[in-house]
Automatic annotation (TrEMBL):
It comes from the Bacteria. GO terms for cellular component: cytosol. PROSITE patterns: IUNH. Coiled coil: none annotated. InterPro entries: I/U_nuclsd_hydro_CS, Inosine/uridine_hydrolase_dom, IUNH, Ribo_hydro-like. Pfam families: IU_nuc_hydro. This is Pyrimidine-specific ribonucleoside hydrolase RihA. One of its GO terms (biological process) is purine nucleoside catabolic process. The keyword Hydrolase applies. Signal peptide: none annotated. The gene is rihA. GO terms for molecular function: purine nucleosidase activity; uridine nucleosidase activity. Residues 5-298 form the Inosine/uridine-preferring nucleoside hydrolase domain. Keywords: Glycosidase, Hydrolase.
Length: 317
């Protein structure tokens, strides 16, 4: 039976690829809904991006708009990496779909309460929506199987020396989520930077079907910022949170207690893991640290080829 999931995202090039990866595996993952949150760009732009991606593959999945800003302070966007639209590169047709009227928190609450099975949350964005849900309705924790998130990094950051973007944008929300008691799988920079796609692979995508070509065009733009920052290849950050659900055997991990620093001048937004032999708290997070890159890319290419070949069935039909 397929695992029911809710994807919480801010598309975003790698968010879009994560959504497509999930859509290509309806026998394993049932996307009950998608929620959006201000992050890579402002809320209206990234919500439109999510709807455009779904329209491109004819996937009529409900999308709910969430928080436009973090719990405290103003939104810091990822425009420097993702462009003015939040998903610069391919020219996608206007969306055929519109967001639902409910806000993201109420939408998630309704889906979780109505589900006979526990729901898995897949946040690939700042954790504002998830923190608001868990704070307002703590009783839903018992109906959440786990949280497979992209965020953080034990060794280094990418916005500051210590903080990764998704956590940096809303560290207060991230701390609430990590300390919620819900089992967490963390795809941080330690693993996502190793899930890099290289130029020759991007070129190969652009010689395939329409979905693969669109992803290749996404990566053409996305790789520009990476090159400026000294990277060889483009890290597929957000798809790791989906790929772990599909093929956890590809990953190396460690069970650790992780929380988030919210006050440090140099460390605000840092995911802090207790790696002592006798930590103060039991492990709350499976931290992904390594990945079989070649197997990851083969599975991604296979997924995109599947979307190239098939007209995606509308979920729920």
């Amino acid at each position: 039976m397929a695992t029911p999931i809710i994807i919480d995202c801010d598309p975003g090039h790698d968010d879009a690829i994560a959504i497509l990866l999930a859509l290509a595996h309806p026998e394993q993952l049932e996307i009950r809904g998608i929620t959006t949150v201000g992050g890579n760009q402002i809320l209206d732009k990234i919500t439109d991006n999510a709807l455009k991606v779904l329209s491109f593959v004819n996937a009529d999945i409900p999308v709910a708009k969430g928080a436009a800003a973090p719990l405290l302070g103003k939104l810091v966007t990822g425009e420097v990496a993702h462009g003015e639209s939040g998903m610069d590169g391919p020219l996608l047709p206007p969306s055929k779909f519109k967001p639902v009227e409910q806000g993201a928190v109420e939408f998630m609450l309704e889906l979780i309460r109505a589900s006979e099975e526990k729901i898995t949350l897949v946040p690939t964005a700042p954790l504002t929506n998830i923190a608001l849900l868990l704070t307002a309705y703590p009783e839903v924790k018992d109906k959440i199987e786990k949280i497979s998130l992209m965020g953080g990094g034990l060794a280094y950051g990418n916005v500051t020396t210590t903080a990764e973007f998704n956590i940096y944008v809303d560290p207060e929300a991230a701390r609430i989520v990590f300390e919620s008691g819900i089992p967490i799988v963390m795809s941080g920079l330690d693993v996502t930077d190793k899930a890099a796609i290289f130029e020759e692979e991007i070129l190969e995508l652009k010689q395939r079907g329409p979905v693969s070509v669109m992803v290749g065009e996404l990566l053409d733009f996305y790789s520009i910022y990476g090159k400026k920052m000294g990277y060889v290849g483009s890290a597929l950050h957000d798809p790791c949170a989906i790929m772990w659900l599909l093929h956890p055997e590809l990953f190396e991990s460690e069970q650790l207690y992780v929380t988030v620093e919210t006050e440090g001048k140099l460390t605000r937004g840092m995911t802090v893991a207790d790696r002592r032999k006798k930590p103060d708290h039991p492990a709350n997070t499976e931290v992904l640290l390594g990945v079989d890159r070649e197997a990851f890319m083969k599975l991604l290419f296979d997924a995109l080829e599947r979307l190239d070949r098939e007209q995606l069935p509308v979920q729920g039909d």
